[in-house]
């Protein structure tokens, strides 16, 4: 009863705070909640070889493409590889991936990720040889090369092995040089399209209103329109510079809103609760059932000089214990108070997740429940 009174007092305090006028809306800059459609990232991919490994590379019998790539590379360097088989274990075939940032110019550098394709056990100490990186259109946009940095490690012996992290994947900071600019340029556009990172009609309309209020004072006419929950179109005034227009718009402050959502992860016991989550009046009871199985086999030995054999007599003890659950009537303005109340009566995270799923099934959870 004392725990229930504490829960009720806490819920009343939260009700008073919410009724006192605190708003769930948060104020953010446009640049923090939206991105420019023309300023999207582009994915790059390439195939290459990592050399200089200490016997931890691909076994060429298991990964024949590594030997083929190595022979092709040596022939391009003017070295004949006819007649004879390679037995080196210091080479590994890898996939190289990178993200080309928007408005990247030739000569600038980007980070790359190197991942093993064959049966190499460790890329530590290796060097990626010159590898071209292509985009979705098949054009080469960057060239990568450099020493691979691996955070994971592995050590093994005759009867044991230890592995921490992923030693078959690494990074090369600034390992790729951009060779080709993107086809489109920012100045070629006639308008701006802002894409919300978290689509929401209320936030999109708020962005449009904030831009129009600023544009009326600056240009004397509105220039923005929310096309849907994710996009806001901004028309460029004739006398405006597109880059300066974007710089002024992205620093405007708007009130953001998000739908009520609860995210739970049953594997880790993580619970994330949105600020606008509300719980209707509901009665909650939680009890656990523990089943303990104990095996204590009895060994029966035959008498001396007898013809009997040793026998095993199985013996199993099963004990079931049910914890009594307390029924609590909860009526809170948000889910945070409910979880706090459940924690105060000793409910563990896995129990809280089960209760949340039950409250959602009962229709008392006024939010979206996402179970990962």
Structural class: alpha+beta
Strand content: 25-35%
**Unreliable runs, pLDDT <50, ≥5 residues?**
1-23
Q: What kind of sheet is the major sheet?
A: 6 strands, antiparallel, barrel
- The total beta strand count reads 25
Average pLDDT confidence is 79
In whole angstroms, the N-to-C terminal distance is 34 Å
Helix content: 10-25%
How are the strands of the biggest sheet laid out side by side? 3-4-5-10-7-6
Structure annotation, total helices: 7
Backbone shape:
flat
Q: What Rg is obtained from the alpha carbons, in whole angstroms?
A: 32 Å
- What's the structural domain tally? 3
Question: Quick gist of this model?
Answer:
This protein is α+β, with helices and mostly antiparallel strands. The protein has helices spanning 2-19, 30-33, 64-76, 201-218, 242-249, 335-344, 349-361; strands at 26-29, 34-36, 42-51, 92-100, 109-116, 127-134, 140-147, 153-156, 161-164, 169-178, 191-196, 224-226, 231-235, 253-256, 261-265, 270-273, 278-279, 282-284, 289-295, 298-300, 311-313, 316-322, 328-330, 365-366, 368-371.
What does this structure look like?
- The structure is a single chain.
- The chain has 372 residues and is of the alpha+beta class.
- It folds into three domains: 2-22 and 261-371, no CATH class; 42-154 and 163-178, no CATH class; 185-256, 2-Layer Sandwich (Alpha-Beta Plaits).
- It is 23% helix and 35% strand.
- Strands 3-4-5-10-7-6 form a six-stranded antiparallel beta barrel.
- The longest helix has 18 residues, at 2-19.
- Keywords: Bacterial flagellum, Cell projection, Cilium, Flagellum, Periplasm, Signal.
């Amino acid at each position: 009863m004392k725990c229930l009174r504490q829960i009720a007092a806490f819920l009343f305090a939260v009700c008073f705070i919410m009724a006192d006028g605190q708003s769930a809306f948060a104020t953010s800059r446009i640049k923090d909640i939206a991105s420019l459609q023309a300023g999207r990232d582009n994915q790059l991919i390439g195939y290459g070889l990592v050399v200089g490994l200490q016997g931890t590379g691909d076994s060429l019998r298991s990964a024949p493409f590594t030997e083929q790539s190595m022979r092709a590379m040596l022939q391009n360097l003017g070295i004949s590889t006819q007649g004879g088989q390679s037995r080196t274990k210091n080479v590994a075939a890898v996939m190289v991936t990178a993200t080309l940032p928007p408005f990247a110019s030739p000569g600038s550098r980007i980070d790359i990720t190197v991942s093993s394709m064959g049966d190499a056990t460790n890329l530590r100490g290796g060097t990626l040889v010159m590898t071209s990186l292509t985009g979705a259109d098949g054009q080469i946009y960057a060239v990568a090369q450099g020493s691979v940095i691996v955070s994971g490690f592995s050590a093994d012996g005759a009867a044991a092995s230890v592995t921490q992290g992923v030693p078959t994947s690494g990074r090369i900071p600034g390992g790729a040089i951009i060779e080709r600019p993107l086809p489109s340029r920012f100045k070629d556009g006639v308008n701006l399209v802002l894409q919300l990172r978290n689509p929401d009609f209320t936030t999109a309309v708020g962005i449009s209103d904030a831009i129009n209020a600023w544009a009326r004072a600056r240009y004397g006419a509105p220039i923005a329109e929310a096309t849907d929950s994710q996009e806001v179109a901004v028309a460029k005034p004739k006398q405006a510079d597109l880059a300066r227009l974007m710089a002024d718009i992205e620093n405007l402050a708007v009130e953001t809103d998000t739908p009520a959502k609860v995210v739970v992860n049953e594997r880790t016991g993580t619970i994330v609760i949105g600020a606008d989550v509300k719980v209707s009046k509901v009665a909650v009871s939680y009890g656990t059932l523990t089943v303990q199985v104990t095996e204590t086999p009895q060994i029966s030995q035959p008498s001396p000089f007898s013809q009997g054999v040793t026998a095993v007599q199985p013996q199993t003890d099963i004990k079931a214990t049910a914890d009594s659950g307390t029924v609590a009537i909860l009526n809170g303005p948000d889910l945070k108070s409910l979880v706090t109340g459940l924690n105060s009566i000793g409910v563990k995270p896995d129990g809280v997740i089960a209760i949340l799923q039950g409250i959602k099934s009962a229709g008392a959870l006024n939010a979206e429940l996402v179970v990962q």
